[in-house]
Design a protein that fits this description.
single chain, 533 residues, mainly alpha, 20 helices, membrane, MFS
């Protein structure tokens, strides 16, 4: 980094600290001006107010610092380049990941003679390889530039996706799904990790929410693209429409993968030299922002940092919470199988193939809007746990209704099943909140954050590799034996775990707040132990 950039960093850091002190002193005087003398002046009162905010059960919004023109330009550039790449990549990733379901209901089942639970096993093989590669990939990303690693993997899965178009039996699909899982393993956790380095707590949940909502956009595009292909490319060059779906997906993936080499900025202290849009001053400002909010920059993951992470209880709690939030609403993935199973009184399908692909698009739209709403509310009110609990309470409603409908379909209105499937999309915004919460719980331990993200995603796919075959078998669709009942259990578990983690967080922060009042730097409290009240 140039000396001018270093000088700017020092000046910006000083100005930022002055702005923070000025804002906090001003707010303290306005709200508690009569009490300043009793606690020894505005400086000590500022510590008191900050300490009170730390232990509050619902923390008020943090006082914002007025951004400089350079900082505003940095955030704008990050949104244009990093977020654009991440979101398009996520759309393509989820399109590649879910098009197997769209192809299945659009002729793949009949062409490859998939009359058992092969669809579930496609997910199983993908999940196993995804799970095995995910944590090594999170380690590699601390040694290899993300601008090399992530686009390289994306190009790899683009080729694999296109090759699925030429498969002739289930075994060939199994093999390619294994490769697809290996290549896709670092995309979502890798981008989430990068967001934690470039965005502040006031910006993070919104960006994570916007990025996460692109999963729904990918799912919507999969259905819409399949409808368009069936109407335009079916039979072209002797290929069925579902085969064209994989070819087109593969071409799109290759294009965005190549763009990633210059759109990913890498890390604030190790910026990507190929990122033409990121200057040395922008990178310096990013480092100032990390310091301002008590965040650490990237560090290489070593055996010592891995062992330290293993010793933290939060390294197991956050993954367990995340897994529960994924498994609880998982039934929405089988909305199209529900539609495909419905028959008219004369035995003909209620919905055409095009309609089976198109109707779930409405659920995807609900998902996108709700993820944005949950994420924006989270940043505005600076709370994560309350909104996760709110989604769990909402999620209990459709799970309860579907538990009744699958057991008594003749006496329960079919309309309640339609409504329940659509309602399930309301509670798919938990992931950005859980990851934002993790960033706040471990602001100074970037190695632990990176590993825990890996554990969380790996845990999900490890569980999905076997559970969805047992819980959501395609041969039982849509009358699953106990799937929706287990979803109720998972949502209740989410509520209990969120409350427990919030209580533990408060206990951990009390000694830090006490040290802050004394002007001490207490670094002894970690997430290995919970201090006594």
């Amino acid at each position: 980094m140039s000396s001018s950039a270093a000088r700017y960093r020092a000046l910006s850091a000083r100005d930022a600290r002055q702005d923070l002190d000025h804002d906090s002193d001003h707010n303290d005087t306005v709200s508690l001006n009569e009490s300043s003398e009793t606690v020894g002046g505005n400086g000590q009162l500022s510590w008191l107010v900050k300490a009170t905010q730390r232990v509050a059960f619902w923390p008020p919004p943090t006082t914002s610092v007025k951004s400089s023109p350079l900082e505003q330009d940095l955030v704008r550039r990050l949104d244009i380049f990093l977020m654009t790449f991440g979101c398009i990549s996520q759309v393509i990733k989820y399109l590649d990941q879910t098009n197997i379901s769209s192809a299945y209901v659009s002729g793949m089942k009949e062409d490859l003679e998939l009359y058992g639970d092969e669809l579930n096993y496609f997910t199983t093989f993908f999940s196993i390889s995804y799970c095995l590669m995910l944590i090594p990939s999170q380690v590699i990303i601390t040694y290899v530039r993300p601008s090399y690693w992530l686009p390289g993997l994306e190009i790899g899965w683009g080729f694999v996706t296109a090759f699925i178009a030429f498969t002739q039996n289930a075994r060939q699909v199994y093999a390619l799904r294994v490769l697809l899982g290996l290549f896709e393993s670092s995309a979502w956790p890798g981008m989430m990790t990068l967001f934690m380095y470039w965005y502040t707590p006031m910006e993070l949940a919104k960006r994570m929410g916007f990025y996460h909502s692109c999963q729904a956009l990918g799912s919507m595009m999969s259905g819409a693209l399949q409808v368009a292909i069936l109407e335009t490319l079916e039979g072209t060059w002797g290929l069925r429409g579902w085969r064209w779906l994989f070819i087109i997906n593969g071409i799109m993936t290759l294009a965005i993968g190549l763009a990633g080499f210059f759109m990913i900025p890498d890390y604030p202290k190790l910026p990507n030299p190929g990122a033409f849009w990121l200057s040395a001053d922008h990178a310096a400002m990013a480092t100032v922002r990390l310091d301002r909010h008590g965040r650490s920059d990237t560090k290489r993951i070593t055996w010592d940092s891995a062992k330290r992470t293993f010793s933290m209880w939060i390294a197991y709690f956050i993954p367990a919470l995340y897994i529960a939030t994924v498994l609880a609403p998982y039934g929405y993935n089988y909305f199209n199988l529900f539609l495909k199973s419905l028959k008219n009184p004369d035995g003909t399908p209620t919905w055409t193939t095009e309609e089976v692909n198109a109707i779930p698009i409405a659920g995807g739209a609900i998902n996108i809007v709700c993820v944005w709403i949950w994420a924006i509310l989270s940043d505005v009110f600076q709370t994560r746990w309350t909104l996760v609990v709110a989604q769990a309470i909402i999620g209990l409603i459709p799970c309860t209704i579907m538990s009744v409908w699958t057991s008594h379909p003749d006496t329960t209105p079919l309309s309640s099943a339609y409504a329940s499937y659509l309602m399930t999309y309301l509670s798919l915004g938990t992931a950005p909140l859980v990851m934002s919460w993790l960033s706040e719980l471990l602001p100074q331990d970037s190695e632990a954050r990176t590993l825990i993200i890996g554990y969380s995603i790996a845990g999900v796919y490890a569980v999905l590799s076997w559970s969805q075959v047992l819980i959501w078998p395609a041969s039982q669709a849509p009358y699953y034996a106990y799937a929706w009942q287990l979803s109720i259990v998972f949502w209740l578990l989410v509520i209990v775990m969120c409350i427990a983690l919030r209580i533990a967080e408060r206990k951990l922060k009390r000694p830090r707040a006490h040290s802050a009042l004394l002007g001490e730097d207490d670094t002894s409290a970690t997430y290995r132990d919970i201090p006594e009240s």
